[in-house]
């Protein structure tokens, strides 16, 4: 046990930093030239060279460095309470534009580059997306970091530095083809390796009882295979406030270059192989597919992140407090982004007990008062469970601890509900059966002081359904925190023309107080303002049209209504319902009933998990239907359908400013929140949606008349199960029948017979979980209403303006304030002292 508080070594001293770097055009240009010429050793300015972009990053990063040091210093001096946000995913996207915006040097950098004949836009476009996430959950974590830095909240993000992020998607003959995302290949100039903070992570081995020097018996985890965790830090600047927070990503490395023992025993190949095995841990991001559930490497990733991050926090703690943990819970909070890092509950117990000599009760007090858990999904197949047998093999010491937590928890249930063995079976952390499993969500709940959902509806369904027993036991632990998005990226940076129009009208305050958008309400009917609003939208649509043509070869006109659905491809999100509508419009136009329709471009984009067969068929179906529609001369100027390939964060930055209609059409009760819905709303798109996730709150905010509602409610969907008869619905609706006839006749797959059979089958299936047929008619009707509304230009523009005006509460600034007021209770960082 360490006891004395380690002092700084004699001779350690801070490198004196004297002046802040100037933020002028001249200084930026001179730094750029320095990095491009002298550090990167390049002479020729080629538009698409990665080195131009890198040199600009270094110039910007220099200006973050001193602010970063001051932020860290302020935290250390004040010894203030802080939050660690633990997430397997941070979908950061590109970082340059955001850094320049937040530093307030966009104009200076633009000018500096203009002087040497370069366009900042082109330079920014050269940056690769940091794609360390699957979708909404990962992007939410990234928006949280931006808002926390902007609110000066002491929050550090902990994640994994995957060598390969989210795969790239190519479309070949209508099918998705995956390509590795080797995003680090050209180097990643934002990160700083901090080898001095490396941690050792144990795997395998066994628990053993040993007697220590004082004669006390204690458990030690022995014969382990150790892996090194090396942190890489990325700066997270706040908006014009001189705060720079940290995103710390862990990379796995073999502990010794080679395992010397193995090497000396003569098995050179084995020792290289075990080095590889260590480094495999952070090799690749898992694309969320339920088929991938239960993969051992994924559990290794989860433990690797949890252990490294907790050890890092404790290391930093001990540096300031020695081995005195009495204030630890008062000064630290760990927010778990879904159950993915939930093993942290057991790992913190292990570290406190095994490594710091604490007894169970004290350790449990600390754990239960520092952990907070956010749930992001109700889908039963997404609820993580790990086989006990895998835990025993990989993390034997953690299994001991989970068993002990469970035994004590079951004693608590028995006291609360004496004799209720069914409750015990239902609530146990272990699901019994031929293959006993650990329920990670229950571990997270039992080990946390706060459990939250991500939209009001979702949080209610958690309390009343999935976690009902727990909510009954600990009602005060359950709460809601509705998601948001950062307006700095999702309005200011991605839609500069709209941002200028707004700022000209109400000032710049909305960038840090999004509620101020309410101020443009007054302009909603002003013809002049409306005309300018439309001009911005049109220009954004033209920009997207150009991009679409480049990516797909399809020529589109910006005059059509842009009807957009971009998100991961999943049955519950019902891209299929959207395709059925496209086929219906196609059918109407073909039979001469299309004259009153608004010309429409339907854009669908998103990736399917590589192992998700049905989702991949849906992509193929979209592409086949698109080919038939787009090559039919009768559709010209009336209807187009296009699949946007390789949809990602930078894709959304072009798409959401250009959307007229935002498709949020999941089966009610299935989409926990959605965040794309908020980005579209903020950029003046009108939602067509079900009463699901945050759609409910969006509709409340903007008003019924500015939202196209359709579909069954959660309660109606539940009531339907059992009696659901899609066959009868299809038979009773001639439009639906015609659509199904077209699909079933092979109209969209003449030369590929049978490929859509499973899709067709799923629609006709009484057990269809997603009840596509149940919402067909009301969807078609709502779409028709949207089409009619679009024809009244002034009316549509009014709705568009009101959507932006009412999007104030969907800022992650509000979300983070809510987390802080109810869960974290941290003080803003004060830079005074540093
Ligand atoms: C992600 C996984 C990733 C890898 C392996 C297994 C996984 C299992 C589940 C999930 C997961 O839940 N992903 C989500 S939840 N993605 C989302 O976008 C969700 O979180 C968002 C942020 O709260 C919500 O807005 C979405 O509605 C929700 O689906």
What's a concise summary of this model?
Helix content is 46%, strand content 15%.
Structural class of the helix and strand makeup?
Answer: alpha/beta
Query: Which regions are unreliable across 5 or more consecutive residues at pLDDT < 50?
Result: none
Shape: globular
Sheet of most strands: 10 strands, mixed
Taking Cα atoms only, what radius of gyration do you get, to the nearest Å?
28 Å
The overall average pLDDT, rounded, is 95
How large is the count of helical segments?
33
- Helical residue percent band: 40-55%
- Annotation, overall tally of beta strands: 25
Which small compounds were modeled alongside the protein? ligand M8P
Percentage of residues in DSSP E strands: 5-15%
Ends distance: 33 Å
What does this structure look like?
The strands form six sheets. Strands 1, 4, 7, 8, 11, 12, 13, 14, 18 and 19 form a ten-stranded mixed sheet that branches. 46% of the residues lie in helices and 15% in strands. The protein starts with 24 loop residues before the first helix and ends in a 10-residue tail after the last helix. The radius of gyration is 28 Å and the shape is globular. The chain is an alpha/beta fold and 834 residues long. Helix 22 (575-590) crosses helix 29 and helix 22 (575-590) crosses helix 31 (776-791). It contains 33 helices and 25 strands. The longest helix has 29 residues, at 50-78. The structure holds ligand M8P. Ligand M8P is lined by residues 134-137, 140, 286, 288, 338, 376-377, 382, 454, 483, 671-675, 693. The site of ligand M8P has 19 residues, from helix 6.
């Amino acid at each position: 046990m360490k006891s004395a508080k380690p002092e700084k070594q004699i001779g350690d001293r801070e490198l004196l930093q004297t002046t802040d770097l100037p933020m002028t055009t001249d200084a930026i240009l001179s730094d750029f030239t320095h990095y491009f010429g002298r550090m990167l050793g390049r002479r020729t300015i080629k538009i698409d060279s990665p080195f131009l972009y890198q040199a600009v990053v270094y110039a910007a990063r220099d200006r973050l460095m001193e602010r970063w040091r001051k932020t860290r210093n302020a935290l250390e001096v004040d010894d203030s309470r802080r939050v660690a946000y633990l997430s397997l995913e941070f979908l950061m996207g590109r970082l340059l534009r955001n850094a320049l915006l937040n530093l307030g040097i966009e104009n200076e950098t633009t000018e500096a580059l203009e002087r040497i004949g370069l366009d900042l836009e082109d330079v920014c476009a050269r940056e690769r997306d940091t794609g360390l996430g699957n979708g909404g959950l990962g992007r939410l974590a990234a928006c949280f970091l931006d808002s926390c830095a902007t609110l000066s909240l002491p929050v550090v993000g902990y994640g994994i530095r995957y060598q390969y992020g989210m795969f790239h998607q190519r479309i070949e003959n209508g099918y998705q083809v995956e390509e590795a995302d080797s995003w680090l290949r050209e180097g990643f100039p934002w990160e700083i390796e901090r080898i001095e903070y490396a941690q050792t992570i144990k795997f395998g081995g066994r628990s053993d009882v040993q007697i220590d020097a004082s004669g006390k018996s204690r458990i030690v985890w022995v014969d382990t295979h150790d892996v090194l965790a090396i942190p890489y830090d990325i700066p997270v600047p706040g908006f014009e406030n001189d705060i720079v927070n940290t995103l710390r990503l862990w990379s796995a490395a073999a502990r010794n270059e080679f395992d010397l023992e193995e090497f000396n025993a003569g098995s050179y190949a084995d020792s290289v192989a075990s080095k590889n095995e260590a480094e495999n841990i952070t090799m690749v991001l898992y694309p969320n597919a339920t088929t991938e559930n239960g993969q051992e490497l994924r559990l290794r990733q989860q433990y690797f992140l949890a252990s490294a991050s907790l050890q890092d926090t404790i290391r930093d703690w001990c540096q300031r407090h020695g081995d005195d943990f009495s204030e630890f819970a008062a000064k630290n909070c760990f927010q778990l982004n879904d159950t993915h890092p939930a093993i942290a509950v057991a790992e913190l117990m292990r570290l406190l007990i095994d490594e710091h000599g604490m007894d169970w009760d004290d350790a449990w007090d600390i754990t239960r008062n520092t952990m907070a858990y956010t749930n992001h999904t109700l889908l039963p197949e997404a609820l993580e469970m790990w086989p006990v047998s895998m835990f025993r093999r990989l993390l034997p010491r953690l299994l001991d601890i989970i068993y002990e937590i469970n035994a004590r928890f079951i004693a608590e249930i028995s006291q609360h509900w004496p004799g209720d063995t069914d409750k015990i079976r239902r609530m146990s952390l272990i699901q019994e059966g031929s293959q006993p499993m650990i329920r990670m969500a229950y571990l997270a709940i039992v080990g946390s002081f706060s459990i939250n959902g991500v939209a009001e509806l979702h949080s209610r369904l958690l309390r009343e359904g999935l976690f009902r027993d727990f909510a009954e036991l600990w009602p005060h632990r359950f709460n809601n925190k509705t998601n948001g998005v950062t307006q700095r990226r999702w309005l200011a940076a991605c839609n500069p023309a709209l941002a200028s129009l707004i700022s000209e009208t109400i000032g710049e305050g909305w960038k840090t107080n999004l509620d101020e958008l309410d101020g443009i309400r007054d302009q909603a009917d002003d013809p002049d303002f409306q005309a300018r609003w439309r001009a911005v939208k049109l220009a954004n649509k033209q920009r997207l049209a150009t991009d679409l043509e480049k990516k797909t070869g399809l020529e589109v006109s910006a005059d059509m209504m842009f009807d957009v659905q971009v998100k991961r491809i999943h049955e519950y999100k019902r891209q299929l319902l959207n395709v059925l509508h496209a086929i219906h419009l196609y059918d109407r136009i073909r039979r001469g009933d299309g004259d009153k329709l608004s010309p429409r471009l339907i854009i669908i984009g998103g990736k399917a998990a590589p192992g998700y067969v049905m989702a991949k068929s849906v992509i193929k179906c979209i592409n086949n239907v698109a080919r038939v529609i787009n090559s039919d001369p009768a559709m010209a100027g009336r209807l187009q359908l296009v699949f946007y390939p390789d949809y990602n964060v930078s894709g959304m930055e072009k798409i959401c400013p250009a959307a007229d209609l935002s498709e949020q059409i999941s089966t009610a009760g299935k989409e926990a929140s959605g965040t794309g819905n908020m980005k579209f709303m903020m950029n003046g798109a009108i939602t067509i949606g079900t009463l699901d996730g945050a759609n409910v709150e969006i509709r409340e905010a903007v008003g019924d008349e500015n939202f196209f509602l359709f579909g069954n409610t959660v309660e109606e969907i539940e009531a339907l199960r059992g009696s659901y008869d899609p066959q009868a619905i299809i038979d009773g609706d001639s439009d639906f029948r015609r659509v199904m006839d077209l699909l079933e006749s092979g109209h969209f797959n003449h030369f590929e017979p049978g490929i859509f059979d499973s899709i067709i089958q799923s629609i006709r299936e009484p057990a269809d979980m997603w009840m596509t047929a149940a919402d067909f008619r009301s969807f078609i009707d709502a779409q028709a209403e949207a089409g009619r509304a679009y024809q009244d230009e002034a009316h549509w523009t009014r709705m568009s303006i009101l959507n932006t005006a009412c999007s104030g509460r969907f800022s992650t600034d509000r979300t983070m304030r809510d987390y802080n007021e109810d869960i974290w209770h941290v003080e803003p960082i004060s830079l005074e002292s540093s």
